From TrEMBL, chains A, B:
<dbReference type="Pfam" id="PF12867">
    <property type="entry name" value="DinB_2"/>
</dbReference>
<protein>
    <submittedName>
        <fullName>5-histidylcysteine sulfoxide synthase</fullName>
    </submittedName>
</protein>
<dbReference type="InterPro" id="IPR051043">
    <property type="entry name" value="Sulfatase_Mod_Factor_Kinase"/>
</dbReference>
<keyword id="KW-0408">Iron</keyword>
<dbReference type="InterPro" id="IPR027625">
    <property type="entry name" value="OvoA_Cterm"/>
</dbReference>
<dbReference type="InterPro" id="IPR005532">
    <property type="entry name" value="SUMF_dom"/>
</dbReference>
<dbReference type="InterPro" id="IPR024775">
    <property type="entry name" value="DinB-like"/>
</dbReference>
<feature type="domain" description="Sulfatase-modifying factor enzyme-like">
    <location>
        <begin position="192"/>
        <end position="445"/>
    </location>
</feature>
<keyword id="KW-0560">Oxidoreductase</keyword>
<feature type="domain" description="DinB-like">
    <location>
        <begin position="26"/>
        <end position="161"/>
    </location>
</feature>
<dbReference type="Pfam" id="PF03781">
    <property type="entry name" value="FGE-sulfatase"/>
</dbReference>
<comment type="pathway">
    <text>Amino-acid biosynthesis; ergothioneine biosynthesis.</text>
</comment>
<dbReference type="InterPro" id="IPR042095">
    <property type="entry name" value="SUMF_sf"/>
</dbReference>
<dbReference type="InterPro" id="IPR027577">
    <property type="entry name" value="OvoA_Nterm"/>
</dbReference>
<dbReference type="Pfam" id="PF13489">
    <property type="entry name" value="Methyltransf_23"/>
</dbReference>
<dbReference type="InterPro" id="IPR029063">
    <property type="entry name" value="SAM-dependent_MTases_sf"/>
</dbReference>
<dbReference type="InterPro" id="IPR016187">
    <property type="entry name" value="CTDL_fold"/>
</dbReference>
Length: 701, 701
């Protein structure tokens, strides 16, 4: 096949040359996408859905063009829409997640010829922009032209995903096409074997100044040490997988995860999806035709099928057979010195449409000791996609990756015969739902379970994420971080000689606990809400915390905070978080030099019960710090339990009066009352701005 | 009778003499109160309630002593309670309003002898304090000793109100007592007559530097011109009132207000409360005995009965007979040169216990052309109590008056035979619920309806009072007044040549409307909420606005704002407030040079409908200003109506984008977006701090 243009280096100092290269990259991509739809046999083929939960192909035909327009509008490279109606119809609906948008009643699809005309208009617009818009090299993440590359790489992704949909279409809607020649080699598969891989380290993540375009999730850094393991030399072939099918693997829940078994039952799957049983024989559905089963080609399955095979294989062999982690895939890739596609050369892999418009035998492309570490079909990993350290969303495409940080989308690596552009690079990182089909199979490894990966989720619970920002996020209106301020005040009140144990009661997401750990040798962070404590625990265990914040209406932003940049990495392990009720504390929680009760007392069901015993938990000379805006609400505290803010016997009783009543027997007030402000961000423009009254009490001897 | 000490001048520069006078004032008051309870015949008399909705007399016996302790504690004159249990029992429950506290189960009354002992302890304490506490003259409102006078005057009030309760007690519980000699003069009453009063002015209100103690509601200033009227020479006597009773006045709803008729039916009243029918004759219940009806004594009735009599009398005479206003009472008082009680002389009035422990004939004490403008019995006015300009609550007794600013407590004037101390002064101002009985009757006048009095109410609705403070109150965190800032910005955007009509849409309590009136010749203030507009209207009509704010828990503070001190008195009449729906405005609202929509669009059910027609309401070159934090909530605006803060066709649409979409056809953006902050106070320590995005749009030609 004619070599398809490679994703360009964006740091070419010759901006005219760079402009020409991008123009070529755009046009060849646009052409190739047009060619894909030429395999369809009729207009009807555009309108009948290949699978129920996704749009018909007409959507995908228009979508990649509309995407250019939307992103260039955002970047200010164009001013006006070309066809607002089409650009509404073709804008969203790529992913199965949007199944509620897929009701056909909502759509009045235009004819393919109309879309072809629209695509032509878009091409002319892009052609003009690329030829004429000002361009300074290099093109980086914030550069307006980044969106042009984004559009091209986006179309290359859809070149692949649409080829999968076409492969799922009824045969009558597709035809062979000279631009899409399949591999004709097939035969029995050689036996697979495990190859020893020594322990070693890998580095993942794309540098911010990398010369090639990248998607948001690729950037950042992860370095990790891996133990020795064994890895299969080849991808699992149809033949190797057949043993599992023949052994009744699809009918035995033992091999499947719960989620996988649910899928199997829902889909009534009996064998790989593209396998077709014909009179006791097997055929394989390719993109445009059905062929006798090429047993030595890689089997194409979803994650659940791959995982079930591994469990079965492990029992068969007595070896710890499993899917690799993303880290492990990189280890194999790096050890084998796999080359990325480059201009002017065919790549040594069934990749980038350099060789076939189909898979090929699993022993065709040797890369080091292995075959097909890159290319042929994607390889499932057991790793749900997660952000690397330093992850940030691109402002022009904030939902490219973030919706997949849900522990339900697993990474696939290596690319397939049709993966091109960014997809063909080492740093490429794509993830799909575990039950999805792509041109994807798997390679197994044998070894101990891999290192756990960081939690990928963004905390999105409104209260929890507001608290996370309150404790670890930006300051607003010049108001200093509240838990940090209180912790400093507490440390100063205790003095250097009292630095034993501290209790942060009502610790919420834990900032004050960590700050106290700078001074105290041990800090207990206790809160009633497990939900909030979890964020502190997450920060402690993983060093970072991610959450979303509401910006305006339903628009959100993504935030990451880490202990290291707060200067807390070294002391965080002095903190012990636990759930507890301040009105009924465990006897264990005692012997403190400090008890901090920040924004706590007006949320307790019985603040008096707490205050009546708190002296028993302090060491001699210990300090109790109470901070509260005294926002008494009956939903938290029955009125008869309010410490103050009441009329008693006709006279005003303030909460400060109530604190004196409750504490004077055992404590002397050594500092305060003073007002310490805090700000909680609700949206980009809406904040709670509150004054907390702080009093410091020392236990009398 | 022995003359009871007068309320002392508090500006005596000889502080030793002042101290001695206060000691005497305290002791004689305490003694006289003790004497009152000597008319009770048994301990049982202390425990049986004279009327169902008020405490038994034991409460009142202890209450005045406890009151001293509570107030002196507040003032820091004493440090500790004398008897915490008693001081809880005797603290509150004076007013019928507290009927829910009157369940006897809540109380375990001590024996009268115990209370007598307690009173002795209190007296010793007060005696010591008055003898020894530091004293600098003069004693003013903020002086710690003010609370001593407060306690004494408080006891003098209860001397009177307890005498009413005793009068309502069963006869078997009371006995005559030499310290309480009644008047024995009675006979037929002379015919009443109307006396002409020329038009003239009166001045009400006590100066802040007045030499005598005063209650909070007495201070301030009111000057008013009164029209000519006629006033009855004498109080209405039992005889004059009898004609109404005999005419079936208590059975004819025509004469009664709705509220009065409800009371009559509830009470099944057939005649004045203290009248007793015996064998076709009438007797009158006095404090300690029942006597043949003294027909020439003043009738004692509540407000409803007095009002009904006047309506009946008006029909009888064809004259505009009615109750006087408070202003009118002062006009008569001033014209008649009534003298206040002074030391060393008996007052020329049945007042201050100088003459009788009962009423006396209505023609006994002539004062100018009238009788009994002061003394004998209180005189109901048609004026509900309201605060004068400059009113402020006293911090040591913030619920003395404020609970009566509810349009349900009418002023009584002139004092009765037992009114002494502060009660006997011209400036005295007491108000009771209209159905209450005191030693009170009435004088009628004939004339056109009096000038309406200012609204006395404090806005206490949480939202409305927060808005009042937001618009007219204090600034917080250094954030400038928001509606004022917007109005200035609007005036600057319009320029001096555009100063015709302005529309303040979503005007709430109206501050921006008033501020715009500094520049525009006419301003329409329109809001959906009649509740909020009402506050603007109140400010416009009365020049002032009063509201309460939450401080901490149930504790509140009282606030008054006026147009004059905001510099808005001269322009306020340019504003016209009306209720309206921004999504469906009346056609009349058009021809504006400015439309200001502040914090409006994200509270509309269809902001697009508003924006689609707003250009039709502006003059050529007119300016539209939109300010909003874009806090879209489905409770206000269905999501499909949100202007922005949404994902549309996969892309982020901000509200600013949505504004451009809605407005660009008719407007050009001439200023902004810029963020203008505002702060809304929720409690003393809790605030909403928000950024409103402001954009200014000029109508295209």
């Amino acid at each position: 096949m004619e070599r398809l243009s490679r994703t360009p280096r964006l740091d070419n100092p010759d901006s005219d040359a760079l402009r020409r290269e991008i123009l070529d990259y755009f046009n060849t991509t646009f052409d190739r996408y047009e060619q894909l739809f030429e395999v369809l046999t009729s207009d009807e083929a555009y309108f009948v859905k290949p699978i129920a939960l996704r749009h018909p192909l007409i959507f995908y035909y228009g979508h990649t063009a509309t995407f250019f327009i939307n992103k260039l509008l955002l970047a200010g490279l164009i001013e006006e829409r070309i066809n607002p109606r089409f650009e509404s119809i073709f804008a969203v609906g790529v992913d199965e997640m949007s199944w509620d948008d897929l009701n056909d009643d909502h759509y009045d699809w235009p004819a393919p010829a109309e879309v072809k005309t629209y695509r032509k208009q878009v091409r002319q617009t892009l052609d003009r922009i690329i030829r004429t818009a000002p361009l300074t090299s290099p093109i980086h993440w914030d550069h307006p032209w980044w969106t042009i590359l984004m559009g091209i790489e986006h179309e290359r992704i859809h070149l692949e995903t649409s080829s999968v949909l076409i492969r799922q279409h009824d045969l009558k809607y597709v035809q062979s096409h000279p631009a899409w020649p399949v591999c004709r080699d097939s035969g029995p598969a050689p036996a697979n074997q495990l190859i020893d891989i020594p322990a070693g380290s890998v580095t993942l993540g794309k540098a911010r100044d990398d010369a090639h375009y990248g998607w948001d999730n690729e950037y950042g850094l992860r370095q990790i040490e891996l133990k020795a393991l064994q890895a299969a030399q080849m991808l699992v072939s149809n033949q190797e997988f057949r043993a599992f099918v023949d052994a009744g693997g699809y009918r035995d829940a033992r091999w499947w995860s719960e989620e996988g078994w649910d899928w199997r039952n829902f889909a009534a799957a009996e064998h790989p999806s593209f396998w077709v049983r014909t009179n006791d024989d097997w055929q394989l559905r390719l993109m445009c035709e059905q062929v006798c089963m090429p047993w030595d080609w890689p089997v194409e399955v979803n994650y659940h099928e791959a995982e079930a095979f591994c469990r079965w294989k492990a029992e068969q062999t007595g070896l710890p057979i499993r899917l690799p982690s993303e880290d492990e895939w990189y280890r194999l890739y790096d050890l084998s010195n796999v080359a990325e596609p480059s201009p002017g050369h065919s790549v040594n892999a069934n990749l980038h449409l350099d060789h076939f418009a189909s898979p090929c035998p699993v022993y065709r492309f040797a890369q080091g000791d292995f075959y097909d570490l890159s290319g042929n079909v994607w390889q499932w990993t057991q790793t749900p996609i997660y952000p690397f350290e330093g992850f940030a969303v691109h402002p022009c495409y904030d939902d490219f990756t973030t919706p997949t940080f849900d522990e339900r989308h697993n990474l696939i690596k290596g690319g397939s015969w049709i993966s091109c552009g960014n997809e063909s690079l080492r740093t490429a990182r794509y993830a799909f739902r575990r039950h999805f089909f792509q041109h994807a199979g798997f390679r197994y490894v044998a070894g101990a379970p891999p290192t756990a990966i960081p939690d990928s989720r963004y905390e999105s619970d409104e209260l929890a994420s507001q608290y996370a920002e309150f404790h670890y996020g930006d300051e607003h209106f010049g108001v200093a971080n509240f838990p940090q301020t209180l912790a400093r005040l507490a440390i100063s009140a205790c003095g250097s000689e009292h630095n034993g144990k501290a209790l942060d009661l009502g610790c919420a997401t834990g900032r004050a606990s960590f700050e106290l750990a700078r001074h105290f040798t041990a800090v207990d962070g206790v809160d009633f809400s497990a939900r909030l404590i979890d964020l502190g625990v997450q920060l402690q265990q993983q060093g970072r915390l991610r959450y979303t914040l509401q910006e305006e209406g339903e628009l959100i932003s993504y935030h990451e905070r880490d202990l290291a940049s707060l200067g807390l990495a070294d002391v965080a392990n002095r903190v012990q978080f636990s759930q507890g009720d301040a009105c009924n504390l465990k006897p264990l929680l005692t012997g403190y030099d400090l008890i901090l009760a920040a924004n706590l007392i007006d949320r307790l069901y019985s603040p008096r019960r707490f205050l009546s015993q708190v002296h028993t938990r302090l060491n001699p000379g210990g300090v109790l710090i109470i901070a509260s805006p005294y926002t008494w609400l009956e939903e938290h505290t029955p009125k008869e339990e309010w410490l103050g803010g009441i009329k008693r016997d006709g006279e005003n009783v303030t909460t400060l009066d109530g604190l004196h009543e409750a504490l004077d027997a055992h404590f002397e007030l050594i500092r305060g009352p003073e007002e310490v402000p805090f700000v909680i961000r609700e949206t980009r423009r809406k904040f709670q701005h509150t004054l907390s009254e702080v009093t410091c009490w020392r236990l009398k001897d």
